[in-house]
Design goal:
Helix content: 40-55%
CATH topology: TIM Barrel
Shape: globular
Number of strands: 8
Oligomer: single chain
Keywords: FAD, Flavoprotein, Nucleotide-binding, Oxidoreductase, Proline metabolism
Cofactor: FAD
Strand order of the largest sheet: 1-2-3-4-5-6-7-8
Number of domains: 1
Order of helices and strands: HHHHEHEHEHEHEHEHHEHEHH
Number of helices: 14
Protein name: proline dehydrogenase
Structural class: alpha/beta
Largest sheet: 8 strands, parallel, barrel
GO molecular function, one term: proline dehydrogenase activity
CATH architecture: Alpha-Beta Barrel
Catalytic activity: L-proline + a quinone = (S)-1-pyrroline-5-carboxylate + a quinol + H(+)
């Protein structure tokens, strides 16, 4: 087996492990493993408490970056836990309302109720959208596995009829997404965040990493620009980023680059110094296990850094911006 096939098999296995609820709960409740693996996760997450998220937000804001903050979690399975997540997001919005303008709040709908009851999820989303509107903040709904896409888009469409400060994330890797984008462009006015997609889907139900996917991604950005919608280009893909930065049409539009915390800090700094708006996507909270697995699966060599940090710790990514 060659290296690329080995890495692909490793990434697929890691994505499967990431979705193992029993393993995730074991790590979270383990007095031994939680602090060890948290050291690895802190390459990609601000920390496991709100104060750490706000600290990183403030440090990035001071250096001229835009920020997006998320209390990390998904697939919450009880109403009590969904309500607790809602309350933490409310606390996050309250804290961000006192900071510098421009902070965005991101969230998974399955974190606040979608996996329990769509009405519960909508009630929580409505409450957060209202609070964020008063605070002058924007919410952006993340996209999840393709099985949830219809529900997520329906809830976004409903909330967009009442609030203008709620955006949506779309995954370029799903064959349906161009049609979904066309629909989203007909309603609402929130930011459209475009990602390639990190979720493990069944063979034939997604477009693999390829020039085809890159072209499709750029096509989606162009459709947003042509429609006059704010678009967040959420990628570390250098061919896409070169295309964005070398074409003046994007500099004159409501286009920003969004990059994950701790990844390609050198590139983020270069783009910012070149005058392109750059937003750093920050996460915090105790549900970092799946997020860590996805970051390693996307770039398997990250496993070396993860092991090193677990054993010996490492430099805080915030110092590299």
């Amino acid at each position: 087996m060659n290296d690329s096939l080995s890495e692909r098999a490793f990434a697929d296995a890691l994505k499967s492990v990431a979705r193992n609820l029993q393993l995730k709960q074991y790590v979270r409740q383990s007095a031994e493993w939680y602090p060890i693996l948290l050291r690895a996760a802190e390459r990609f997450v601000a920390g496991d408490v709100l104060e750490r998220g706000l600290f990183c937000r403030d440090a990035l804001d001071a250096q001229g970056y835009r920020t997006s903050l998320e209390y990390i979690g998904e697939n919450t399975l009880t109403e009590t836990e969904c309500t607790q997540a809602f309350q933490e997001f409310s606390r996050l919005i309250e804290a961000c309302s006192k900071g510098r303008p421009g902070t965005r709040i991101s969230l998974d709908l399955s974190h606040i109720g979608l996996s329990v009851d769509e009405d519960l999820s909508y009630r929580h989303l409505e409450g957060l959208a209202s609070q964020a509107e008063v605070a002058g903040l924007e919410l952006v709904i993340s996209m999840e596995e393709s099985a949830k896409t219809n529900s997520i888009l329906a809830l976004h469409r409903n909330i967009s009829a009442r609030f203008t400060n709620v955006g949506i994330t779309l995954q370029a890797q799903l064959p349906r997404t161009l049609e979904d984008l066309e629909q989203v462009l007909t309603y609402g006015s929130g930011t459209i965040r475009i990602v390639k997609g990190a979720y493990q889907e069944q063979e034939g139900q997604y477009i693999p990493r390829s020039e085809t996917l890159t072209s499709r991604y750029i096509q989606m950005v162009d459709l947003c620009v042509q429609a006059g919608r704010a678009v967040s280009v959420a990628t570390h893909d250098e061919p896409i980023l070169r295309h964005m930065t070398r074409n003046e049409v994007y500099r004159g539009a409501a286009v920003e680059i969004e990059m994950l915390y701790g990844i390609r800090t050198d590139l983020a700094k270069q783009l910012k110094d070149d005058g392109f708006p750059v937003r750093i996507y920050l996460t915090y909270g105790e549900e970092w296990f799946l997020y860590l697995c996805h970051r390693i699966a996307e770039h398997p060599p990250n496993i070396y850094d993860a092991v090193t940090r677990s054993i010996a710790g490492g430099t805080e990514p915030i110092t590299q911006y």
